[in-house]
Specification:
With 208 residues, the protein is an alpha/beta fold. Helices cover 37% and strands 16% of the residues. It has a 6-stranded mixed β-sheet.
């Protein structure tokens, strides 16, 4: 049994402003660093490898997670956030006003989740994320591995792994530094064990 911990990065200034970050290289806020430290204390090095998106907010979260260990995070392009193209830097409220038709189709389409530009569709990201996860799981039988990525990428990955409709993307939320746990049996069949676990943040977060 291989255990995969899918982790969203810590908070950024753009998260606070509700701006779509996508592939913009936004760093962690001080609160985000504190969240990552709490997560690191919770995990306490109980994993054998850490893979991460190369974007600053994810990579820095991964570095903090690795502090109790001798491990270094391994960056993978396939774990980068959804490329939202023209929508990056805007809030979803702004997007709905500027691109009403495309935004509504993105929200409601079940088969591909087409986007205005960027990655083109949720389906494209879902396929990328699913392929990346299976390739890593194959390398780590019977281990616990961490992947630090982004809310959009993780949601797309779950859609791919569990064959959900594309508009499921819009029906659940993932908090900063949340853990989503998936276990894979010997046949590499995935089982969702927990979703959006942020119990480590019950401790008051202070700036570091």
């Amino acid at each position: 049994m291989t255990t995969l911990l899918l982790i969203r990065h810590g908070e950024t200034p753009w998260n606070v402003l509700a701006k779509v970050q996508g592939c913009q290289n936004i760093a962690l806020s001080e609160t985000g660093k504190a969240q990552a430290s709490l997560l690191s204390e919770r995990l306490n090095g109980a994993f054998t490898a850490v893979y991460t998106s190369p974007l600053h907010r994810a990579f820095e979260t991964a570095e903090i997670i690795c502090k109790p260990t001798q491990l270094s995070p391994i960056p993978l392009e396939a774990l980068k956030e959804v490329d939202f193209g023209s929508w990056e830097g805007l809030t979803f409220k702004e997007i709905s006003k500027l691109y009403p038709t495309h935004f509504n189709t993105w929200l409601t389409d079940e088969s591909t989740g087409p986007m205005y530009d960027g990655d083109g569709s949720i389906q494209n990201v879902s396929r990328r994320a699913k392929a990346c996860i299976y390739s890593i799981v194959q390398k780590h039988p019977n281990e616990t591995i961490v992947m630090v990525s982004h809310g959009g990428l993780i949601k797309s990955a779950l859609i791919g792994l569990f064959d959900w409709k594309m508009n499921m993307y819009h029906h659940f939320a993932l908090g900063n530094t949340c853990i989503t746990t998936i276990r894979f049996d010997e046949a590499q069949r995935p089982m969702l064990v927990s979703l959006n676990d942020t119990t480590h943040l019950n401790t008051p977060v202070t700036a570091v």
